[in-house]
Structures are given as structure tokens and as C-alpha cells.
Specification:
Helix content is about 40%, strand content about 20%. It has 17 helices and 13 strands. A hairpin with an 8-residue loop joins strand 3 and strand 4. The N and C termini lie far apart (about 50 Å). The N terminus is likely disordered.
Length: about 475
């Protein structure tokens, strides 16, 4: 990012002859240094210092303790729900298992067959299908949502000729849950654009089972409900026993980690071995109590104000793919109105909320240095005309600042968990579209974690292949093994 902006400054020339004189903040059109200064000043609000990152880690650790505390959990922003998942996969699991993965505008159904040896690819077989969740279902009543899921689940089983079998199912439900057992969990609040009535506060396993029972054409043993972060952790733990953290950076953001039972005041079950449990932090709500106000910008506040859940999930809104593109659009619009981009001439498409997709950031940052093919294509899709190379440099810089902040915030959270666990070698399982498709997100996270973690801790970020789908099946397999 620094190199890109250094190039921006070194390429400044007095070529721009005019700006929109009606812009809200005027810039000297004959001096590109003024334009660079405006862009630098606006973007500086989104750049995190070392002190910022250390304070974020300190605040996060405090909030985790509040969430784990029996007397403080009710008021805590980060709820730190025990998942009741204590055993991790050993790679020897055998059998057929179903997985249902709901966490966004699509959901997946999987049929996974494990052959008892995680070192042999032939011992793992997976079939899956993706189904859409229509907008009217996302915003309708809860019965409609779970009836839709049950119908797709039944159709999938019939397609794969297992509708006559009673199979264990792991249910990944990637929204804030208050778990009361491995097969009982209540939705705390909807996120990610969902707002189905009659679900918050209800047991989502019972709602799914009721919909399946009403159909009467398939039998399914729902033996575990989990969050996508838990599934991501379990999926990688099946391959690497050092996996202790699961992280999602996609439509939303969340993390889970393995905590010692002695630190979990909320724990209401036995203390037999293993004396550990996976904690679903629900860290997307970090900052909802004001402890991140020191890094909140007016752009973050605008995104929060216009969201479906104002004043909630503030950390997530600074990181996740659902909001990153809109954050970039708000900055670009500000600089366009100030005359610092596109000579002050925007477009109807640019000014329309939601039109700068998060995928544009990954595409723009995938351009080689000095090339702007992807950037020009994106800007042309937004109906912007007479785009200069300097415009492209500036837009790329804005994208870099925003994606780096998201990577650093994610990294600060992971470093906090690593330092808290204080295990010498830990694998961090990561999934989500932002991490998976952004060309530099992994490297930016790694660099930041290395600078923040205790010196005797080593770590590795591991992409979770098949993520929460395979993880859900593995939770079901481990639960079946334990019965």
C-alpha cells in the first residue's frame, strides 16, 4: 500500500486543468499536490497505527473476559458462547454424514463419506449442492425459511438415493447463537441481511426438525448445531491436530477458539477430559459498547446508520465483505464531490448505494503495478468516463487502505487469541470470500500477526477447504463417535 501511494506521489503532474466548481470542498485544479493531499488526508482516517492495534487487542481481551464471566456475560458485547464441542477430529472417523450450511444468501447441503484415514484422499468423498435463499424468504417468517431448507434437504437426499437412510446431520447456522447443548441453540439476533420473524430467541434445531417432520418423507438425526467458525476449525483440525482457532472473513466475520474450561465461568456441564471447549466469540459485535469509537470514521458511521442493524456488529462492519465495497464507495464519492477524483464528475451508478461491490476491491488490487486493466473495467461498469491513470492510482490506493485496515483488524483479533491461549504452535483455520479471493489479504494478515504475537509463539494460517460444510459433518461424526 505504501509503495502504491509513493508511486501516486511520484507520478503527480500538473495535467489536470479543471475540477467541478460546484464541489463541496474546492481543490486547486492547477496543483495535483493539493489533490494528493486531499486523498491522503481522507484516507488517513482509515489507517491504523501500532498503538491502535495494541489498544484493539487489549480491549478485545477485556471483552472476551467479560463474555466468559458468569456475572458479566449479560452486559458483554462479545458473548463468547460455549459451543459444547470439546473433542476435535482424530482423522479416523468412519461413515456417511450430512451437513447443512446456512450462513448467507445461499446455503449448501452436503453428503460426506469418511473412510477412517485423513491421509488418503480416497477415504474422503463429498457431494454437495448450493441452494439460494430468495430475498422474500430472508425477510419473511421463520417457518417459511425452515420449510424452504427442509424441502431442499429432502430433494438432495432423494437425488443421491439416501432418502431411505437415517443419517447424522451437522447443522452449521452462521448467526449469533446461544447454545444450550450440542443440539440446542437459540438465535440471538439476525445478521447479514436476514430478518425472518419468529426466530430470534427460538431453538433453531427444533425449528428445522419441525419442518422436516411436517414433510414426513425423510428421516434425519440432527446431532449437532454449530457456527461456521466452529465448522471451519473442525475441518482443518481433521487435517492438522494443531488447529485451535477458526476465523471467517467473508459476508460476515467471526472467530472461535479452544478455551480451557477453568476460564469459562459460563460452563454448565461436566469437567471431564478433555478440559476444553470451543468458544464461539461472536466478535462481530466487538465495539458495540463504544470501545472501538477511537477508530470509527464517519464512513463507518454512515454504513452503520443505513444498515439493517444499526449500532450492532460494528467490528464486522469494518471487516466483512458485506460492507467493504460500500465503504470504498463512500470514500470515492466523498473525493469525487471534493473534485479530487474524476475531475469532480461522478455518475448515477457511482452515487447509488451498494453499487461498488466488494469483489471490485479484489479485482482492482489484482492489477499488476502500473497496470489498470481491472480498475478501468470496474470504473467503466460504473459509467465513469474519461478516466485517467491518476484516477486509477487513486482508486487503487483507496481500496488498498480499506482492505489493509480489514486485514489488520482481523489480524489483531487473531493475535489476541494466540497470546491468550499461549500455545507454542497453533494453526488458524480461515475461510470466507474476502480471505479466499483478495490477492493480498493472507500476506497482510500474516505480517500483522507476526508483529503483534508473543515472540515464542508460531502460527500458520490455513485455508479451510470446503470450510464449514465438511466441518459440520465432522462435528456430527465426532458426536456420533462419542455416543
Amino acid at each position: 500500500m505504501a509503495l502504491a501511494h509513493k508511486n501516486l506521489k511520484s507520478n503527480v503532474r500538473s495535467q489536470r486543468k479543471s475540477v467541478n466548481l460546484g464541489a463541496r470542498a474546492m481543490v486547486n485544479s492547477t496543483d495535483d499536490r493539493c489533490i494528493v493531499a486531499v486523498i491522503t488526508e481522507v484516507c488517513s482516517q482509515l489507517i491504523l497505527s501500532r498503538n491502535h492495534l495494541e489498544l484493539i487487542m487489549k480491549n478485545l481481551n477485556h471483552e472476551l473476559n467479560q463474555g466468559l464471566g458468569k456475572d458479566t456475560n449479560n452486559e458483554a458485547s462479545i458473548k463468547c458462547f460455549p459451543t459444547y464441542v470439546r473433542d476435535l477430529p482424530n482423522g479416523k472417523e468412519i461413515g456417511k454424514f450430512l451437513a447443512l450450511d446456512l450462513g448467507g444468501t445461499n446455503f449448501r447441503v452436503l453428503l460426506i463419506e469418511l473412510g477412517g484415514d485423513n491421509t488418503l484422499p480416497s477415504k474422503f468423498n463429498s457431494k454437495s449442492k448450493i441452494y439460494a435463499v430468495p430475498q422474500n424468504v430472508m425477510l419473511g417468517d421463520g417457518t417459511g425459511l425452515f420449510d424452504h431448507i427442509a424441502e431442499c434437504l429432502a430433494n438432495f437426499m432423494k437425488e443421491h438415493d439416501v432418502n431411505k437412510e437415517k443419517l447424522p446431520l451437522g447443522f452449521t447456522f452462521s448467526f449469533p447463537l446461544r447454545q444450550e447443548g450440542l443440539t440446542k441453540a437459540r438465535l440471538v439476533t439476525w445478521t447479514k441481511g436476514f430478518n425472518c420473524s419468529g426466530v430470534e430467541g427460538e431453538d433453531v434445531v427444533r425449528l428445522l426438525q419441525d419442518s422436516i417432520k411436517r414433510r414426513g418423507d425423510v428421516e434425519i438425526d440432527v446431532c449437532a448445531v454449530l457456527n461456521d467458525t466452529t465448522g471451519t476449525l473442525m475441518s482443518c483440525a481433521w487435517l492438522n491436530p494443531n488447529c485451535r482457532i477458526g476465523l471467517i472473513v467473508g459476508t460476515g466475520s467471526n472467530a472461535c477458539y479452544v478455551e480451557r474450561l477453568e476460564n469459562v465461568e459460563l460452563w454448565d456441564s461436566d469437567f471431564n477430559n478433555p478440559k476444553q471447549v470451543i468458544i464461539n466469540t461472536e466478535w462481530g459485535a466487538f465495539g458495540d459498547n463504544g470501545c472501538l469509537d477511537f477508530i470509527m470514521t464517519k464512513y463507518d458511521n454512515e454504513i452503520d446508520r443505513t444498515s439493517l442493524n444499526p449500532k450492532k456488529q460494528l467490528f464486522e462492519k469494518m471487516i466483512s465483505g458485506m460492507y467493504m465495497g460500500e465503504l470504498a464507495r463512500l470514500v470515492i464519492v466523498k473525493l469525487t464531490n471534493d473534485g479530487a477524483l474524476f475531475r469532480g464528475q461522478g455518475s448515477e451508478n457511482l452515487f447509488k448505494p451498494g453499487n461498488f461491490f466488494t469483489k471490485y476491491i479484489s479485482e482492482i488490487e489484482s492489477d499488476k503495478t502500473g497496470e489498470f486493466n481491472n480498475c478501468r473495467q470496474v470504473l467503466e461498469e460504473l459509467c465513469l468516463v474519461d478516466i485517467t491513470d491518476q484516477d486509477c492510482r487513486d482508486v487503487r490506493y483507496i481500496c488498498e487502505v480499506i482492505s489493509k485496515r480489514a486485514a489488520q483488524l482481523s489480524a489483531a483479533g487473531v493475535a489476541c487469541l494466540l497470546n491468550r491461549m499461549n500455545e507454542k504452535s497453533v494453526v488458524v483455520a480461515v475461510d470466507g470470500s474476502v480471505y479466499r479471493f483478495h490477492p493480498h489479504f493472507h500476506n497482510m494478515m500474516t505480517e500483522t500477526i507476526e508483529s503483534l504475537v508473543l515472540p515464542d509463539i508460531t502460527f500458520d494460517l490455513m485455508l479451510s477447504e470446503d470450510g464449514s460444510g465438511r466441518g459440520a459433518a465432522l462435528v456430527a461424526a465426532v458426536a456420533s463417535r462419542s455416543r
